[in-house]
Amino acid sequence: MTDPAHLRILVVCLGNICRSPMAQGILARKLDEAGLGDRVQVDSAGTGDYQVGKGPDVRARMSAGSRGYDLSRMRARQVEVVDFRLHDLILATDRGNQADLQALAPDAADRRKVRLFLEYASGNRDEVPDPYQGDWSDFALALDLLEAGAEGLVAAIQRGDWDRGASA
Hints:
By secondary structure, the chain is an alpha/beta fold. It is built from six helices and four strands.
């Protein structure tokens, strides 16, 4: 298990303009509130390359901003193979992106780093639906799910079992 003083987490969605930047902003703030912000690094990326360099979707920024999360400095980037070496935990927002990450992973140890973000949330959902084609309510739902996942992940980091099942 990696020392939580050096834990590096990457959250991944398709374009890195909606779910993963919202998750990054939420998780960073919740880690700060828990006193872990200086010991856990959070980043985000997308499996696709068509949004690279763009800021988060305006609806993502506004929805997140209404809850106190600042996404203004984030810029979309694409996942690279090196991310598997740089990060201890890679969290996909849905199964499609999880499969893409598994296919990109260089080896079995790196594939074990890939999990679903909502594995850390209580509830019966395992995917965060992509709000991009939806309306404001879809962004609110995504935020609700991402907040639940972030709270569960922070609790798991505090307990020291954030990598539970990672070897399965």
